[in-house]
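BUG: 3D viewer hangs when loading the predicted structure for this chain

Environment: internal workstation, default settings.
Expected: structure renders.
Actual: progress bar stalls at 90%.

Input used:
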Amino acid sequence: MATSAAQAYDLQTSPTLLGNMGGLRTSLGEHGVALSLSYVSEAAHNYSGGKKELTSYTDQWALGTTVDMDKLLGWSGATFQMTITDRNGSNLGADAGIGNNMLIQEVYGRGQTTHMTQFWLNQAFLNNQVQWKIGRMTVGEDFASFSCDFQNLTFCGAQPGNLVGSYWVNWPTSQWATRLKVNAAEESYVQVGVYQVNPIYVDDRYARHHGLSLDNPNGTTGVLIPVEYGWLPTWNGLAGSYKFGGWYNTSDGKDLYQDKDREPRGLTGQAPRERNGQYGLYINFQQQISGTAGGSGTSVFLNISQADRATAAQDHQLALGLQNKGPFGRELDVIGVAVGATHNNGRYAAFMRQQDERLGNPASIVGDGYEYVVETYYSWAPIPSIYLRPNLQYIKNPGGARANDNAFVLGLKSGITF
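Structure tokens produced before the viewer hung:
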């Protein structure tokens, strides 16, 4: 007996709240068009740390479409993606004066406004062995890609963007780019990308007026070239993902400590030394270690990134954690626990202290150590399209500075897939 559309999109089983939308999704799907609309909100309250105790709230809407160009136009192997995002709200770390490096609410940032986050075409060749992607893209959707299940930015998204976000641009900001991926074997791939580096794209004033534009503003300084090798093995039938990558930004970078004569610029007050290029390395490991393949069970992850110490104010970050899907027999629920550390570059701290001394300013609070973060959450999903995810965060030495009080934060991340 055939399953009716109403049964297929039962609220208790449907991944989308609006189901088949009266048959619209099925009708569009027959022509290769898939629509998506989602909402994510993140509230946070600091019970300790910072200059004042308060609650902040931020959110993001994401509207997108994925088009199978073969079904729509008979264009074999091609997929088109467009996503528009809109962010609103406030930042607890800044509002409460906590002094943290990594956002307590990862969905905040890049201007509380609308962005054309994705506008690209992916063409597959040789039975999907080779893929070429071109258009407006975010770096983290392809390189060092990682989920955003946690609320603290330490454990969310492509980690290199947490260190060098001025040129490694993650969601929701995009730039013109291209990526070539080759599936070298059944369990491995290699890929390389070329991404425009233009500081205008990450300027909030530009985003407020041109966030939806597909223009190419003046100000390009170079290109970011990431390279990644991925190994995707199975262990006792359970999937793993092991990524090894590096990047090079052809743009010149300003030295954090030395001036143009290679003297301490905090003491001389001279222009910083120009460095030819900026670079770094990363690893991104994930492995399911128990349960059923792709279903309930425990997975572990390890992310480590290192940026060059000449130009990166935060020069390395590591994060380690686990997620358990289906606890207490609830298949849709998840428990997550993670610990992480972000290191502040001592060269930049030395510059700031020397500059304050030269100018006779009060000593700035500037970190030269690690900002440590611990987060745990429980994700409760009453139905597949909705989740509520209360979390606890503890931030030790915010901003890598012992002078900043440790912060204890209660958060709530929630999401709806329409």
